[in-house]
Amino acid sequence: MLNASKIKHTLRPGLFGGLISLAGTALGAADIEFNTDVLDLSDRTNIDLSQFARSGFILPGTYVMVVQINGQPVSEQSVTFYPPDNEPKGSQACLSKALVEQLGLKASEVAGLTWWKGGECLDIQGLPGMEVSGDLATSALNINLPHAYLEYSAINWDPPSRWDEGVPGLLIDYNMTAQSNHQKNERSRNNISGNGTLGANAGAWRLRADWQGRVDNEKEGAAGNRKLEWSRYYAYRAIPALKARLVVGENYLYSDLFDSFRFTGAALNSDESQLPPNLRGYAPEVVGVAKTNARVVISQQGRVLYETLVAAGPFRIQDLNDAVTGTLDVRVEEQDGSVHTFQLNTAGVPYLTRPGQVRYKLATGRPSNLQYNGDGSVFGTGEFSWGISNGWSLFGGGITDNNYRAASIGAGRDLLALGAVSLDVTQSQADVWNETLSGKSYRLQYSKNFEEYDSQVTFAGYRFSDKNFLSMSEYLDARYYGMNGELAGRGVYNENGDHQAQWKPIGGSKALYTATVNKQFRDLGATVYASYNKQTYWTRPATQRWNVSLSRYFNVGSVKNMSLSLNMYRTLEYNYKDNGMALTVSLPLGPTGTLSVDANRAAGTNSLSTRYSDRIDQRNSYQLSASDNSASGYLSHIGDQADFTLAASQQQGNRTNLSMSARGGGTLTPYGAALHRTSSTGGTRLMVDTGGVADVPVRGYGTPTRSNGFGKAVISDLSSYQRTAASVDLENLPNNVEATQSVTQLTLTEGAIGYRSLEVIAGEKAMAVLRLPDGSSPPFGATVKNTRQQDTGIVNDGGSVYLSGIQAGEQMTVSWGGSERCVLTLPITLPADGLTNALQLGCRMVATDQPLSEPAQLTGEPTATENTSS
Questions:
Q1: Are residues 29 and 77 in the same domain?
Q2: CA–CA separation, 59 vs 55, rounded Å?
Q3: Which of 85, 146, 185, 237 has its CA at 20 to 30 Å from residue 858's CA atom?
Q4: 22: containing domain
């Protein structure tokens, strides 16, 4: 026997629907007859429970729902419910062809699908075991499918059928740093540098233009040096069917077999980011020590990849793109005026491919130099990797122009518990300066994650090259700079605004050693990180850099969570040598503060300093530092529109320095625009629409952001081809705002501008009593909606209703019997206490259509005993 709950207080729509849905789940899909005698109502004849009359029943119509496949949210979209042909009183969700494409069905299953309603809706009977049900209480469409029907998927990775190309839009991202140096009796020197990306999205295409520049000025001097250059113009798009990325324009060769160089042309590459996370490459890390607040610039062949301000002490940059390969130039500009540079050779994990798959990279074009444009003849290159079996992969490739040829062949082996290894050999032949040079290069790579020992050899590699072996970039340099090498302006900007002149070795590479190792000692609370790069030459001095860092947490008496960290490094590059060490002991002070003592040795000098760092709140942190010859401060702010950093220092000799950086972007779509913070320029982002409601906290990647005055917020730095969630931060909502739908999920392609709206109701809350023109009240169970069709209340006994989202002077509609029946207008002046002073509202009748369903029977007991799905 089913009795409706005794209701004395008004229920919110979601709660009411949830209770009825729960009851209906137990009883099945047949009609439900409510015994209204148990209801504490003054008028039992004025009731409308038609929307709750059937278990899981949803009135025919179109609803915005979150589609969930096997319990995993996929996307939010409009879903239409139709009455089945054999049951006019019921309703069934129509799975359109567009929605079915998102299910991720295997091709063999798609071929056998059947449809109903003229081929518009999927017939789920054609997939035995498939279940579909709608739930208005949670605005969800639940689809359960046997896994045998589905393509491969992982916890945070979706098959291509569920990828979202986003919406059309424009973007402008920037990263700016300004510095001012002043020394007594000398001219002040000021400079501004930056880099960024302008872009446009149209369908699957991403158009991008990267820029970088620097301006140097002296107060009493001339205008100074000004440099602004567009480092590349290019367009790209994903090709999901090939799991590949097509790029046209100015680009860099990203190869697993050959070195990187800049060219203008086209490239079609199997995209690792479209693969499941466990098959993706290794993103390089840059580790170092800053003596003072410093600017760190990471570039490759003159193109700035990353620029940031770091506080004094050890730094570790880990958010470079995993597509970056080859040699990176790192420049550290200290606030005391000193500059040191080093190079880092990046590398990838062994070249392995999933069994039965083929990965490939194709490119053609003309090599180019950032400063000198054309740099060589038209070339072509191609490479592949074939997964022969569960353990073996075969790979190879070639690259050629009219005077250079190289071919490579190799094999990779998954050693299971012992890790993975690959070995390859490359043969090159180059005709340069009336001489033919021919040689071989051998490479061995290894990686292993020793989970049982909390250790990881991220990468270990060795390459040996014959004396006459030339890579493509070495061949190009030999053509234009001579076989003996010259000063090549391929570095980053120096302090005068010119490109940093660096000695460029031409050929002669002998051996390259690279390794990165992590090890955790959980019992000791310690972590060890080490990296090593060494390049030797046949006729030139070797270059090398190694870095070892050790950190450990420990307790001393009643003092908990003290830490000790040791960072040692050695850099040797041609005529430059630097050995450094930083020892830091940190003591927690207060809930978030840390007092640290640093002992440093760098460039042959020793220093001792004390630092205090603390977090003001979730968005603001600072650091104060003092030593025997300097004092400095560092303030970081995470904003909704941009991230800001301010650094100031005073050195011995009346030398002062002030630095400021700003990193952010702007995104414009047909749905609106917003300024936002960002770390990676031109990257993937999601615009969240809160329906015009401002100051709504939205949580996604990192610190939450808030919607602007137009109700738009952008979450940037999203991972491409990985499932992303965005949600309203319910704990920090303003008092007059509530979210009826607080979470959304999607999987975006690279560079996409995603768009999702979240149902947010803004306005006051108050009790109200509704009256029709004849003095009666709407029936018990009638629903109230605002102009945006959001549920704002359910009518209780005697026309009383608890309304939310009240906007002065706005209209709301009241519906029962399957259609809108009357309109009420809210007063301009709202009561000070809406809970005790109920609003008296008249409801003006409107023309009605035929009810969409018959009202529930109001007497007797329910007769539903079957348990069938709707």
A1: yes
A2: 12
A3: 85
A4: 13-162
